[in-house]
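Model it.
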Amino acid sequence: MKSIIENAVIIFVTVITLIILSILDKVYALPAIAKYVIILPIMALSFTALSRKFRYSTRFRVYYFMCACVILQFLLYLLDDSFFFRSISIQELNENREALTVVNLVSVNFLFLCQLFYFFNGKISKQYLVLEFAALILFISLNIVLFANYYYNTGLSFKGDIVNDFNISLYFSIVTWTTLGYGDVLPHDSNRLIASIQALVGYVYMAILIGLILSFSHNQKTSQN
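Modeled.
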């Protein structure tokens, strides 16, 4: 009974917050980035709180929060044509999608840094190295898809034309992340800075991935001896 009441309170507070946010948006026309900075943490925290029975560890809560944010991104994409109960133009729709992707990218990588700090402080035992490796692969995959989503919304230069194609965006995201840089697809305008940031983030992730592989290999040899 107590858990039912707690869940009801969480849902009620979330709904009231979204209603207030909707009213503020209608009155003050909040920027796209501001809406998602507010709405994503609120909804993701609600998702996490509603699934208390699954929260066995801090590590799992971090992963769950991250996945909840990304799932919410695609749910809000489906609702974006009537976002906050009002019709919006194509330009506003694109701004919403760009802002949503940026907020998700920042959230995912902030959570990754928190998890990395948790790992380097020795709070994760050797038996969880495989789990950490799998989690790192998940973080890398999410980053590649989220960056591709941003490029898809803003467009890329392909054969002299600006194209909005997800396959091309995903290809460019993978090439940029791995710092291959074939040059057949190019960023333009603000995308250049985003692509540079993605390449730097990719370097960091790949270095950590190699470190985890070496650590796992070392632990395997130690256990055998």
